[in-house]
Amino acid sequence: MSEQGGPLFLVVTIKPRPDRKAEAEAQLQSMRRHTLEEPGCVYMHLVQPEDDPDNWVMLEMFRSREAWNEHMRQPYNTEGNKILEDLLREPSDLRFFTEK
Q1: Is residue 30 a contact partner of residue 76, using CB atoms and an 8 Å limit?
Q2: Deepest in the core among 29, 36, 67, 83, taking most CB within 10 A?
Q3: Model pTM score
């Protein structure tokens, strides 16, 4: 699984607007389906914290930072993120992790 630099993990906190949750989820699930087809994506899960129903979390793992960079260049991702701007209360918070 190790490519240059090893695997990259992400925890993305997503804050959908209460009146646009269904649209936000549909957009995120569409982007997720495409991403799962990428060779550099190991997994991507959209989850909801049990103690925080107003926020979602996307748990992601890519084979490398380069694989994630390639993911970020995909049209369904760049266009999808523009669509999400109106569906979220604020920009998503991305946290990056590497294995120790």
Answers
A1: yes
A2: 67
A3: 0.90
